[in-house]
From TrEMBL:
Keyword Transmembrane carried by entry: yes
InterPro entries: UCP019883
Pfam families noted in UniProt: DUF2818
Protein name: DUF2818 family protein
Transmembrane segments: 6-23, 44-64, 76-95
Keywords for this protein: Membrane, Transmembrane, Transmembrane helix
Native source species: Spiribacter aquaticus
Superkingdom to which the source organism belongs: Bacteria
């Protein structure tokens, strides 16, 4: 796999993974949701687990394309966590604001 292809694939996977906790009501994407719905703490834990999974995928792609892993300091991980938070923004906005507005608009049109 070429380096540029690996980078594009990793970005696509990261954007999808960052938004999954807010798009799905299932706990860990397989369990049935509680009666009250999935809490924000569960969504945050899922988001952090997906961040770790994307990090492992990135390490695997780096090893495959370059043949070694580069040592990274804490600054690298803080920057990646911040970028992952930015990637999650569309799903967060959809879950907390846009979805409710769209539901209210749909109810008004039915009346």
């Amino acid at each position: 796999m070429a380096t540029q292809t690996a980078i594009i694939a990793l970005l696509v996977v990261a954007i999808i993974a960052a938004n999954l906790p807010w798009m799905s009501e299932r706990v860990a994407f397989v369990g049935t949701p509680p009666a009250r719905g999935k809490s924000e703490w569960i969504r945050l834990v899922e988001w952090l687990l997906l961040f770790c999974l994307v990090g492992l995928i990135a390490a695997g792609l780096e090893y495959r394309t370059q043949g070694q892993l580069q040592a990274q300091g804490w600054e690298f991980w803080v920057m990646n966590l911040s970028l992952f938070a930015v990637f999650a923004l569309p799903g967060f906005i959809y879950h907390h604001d846009l979805r409710r507005r769209l539901q209210r608009r749909g109810r008004r049109r039915e009346s």
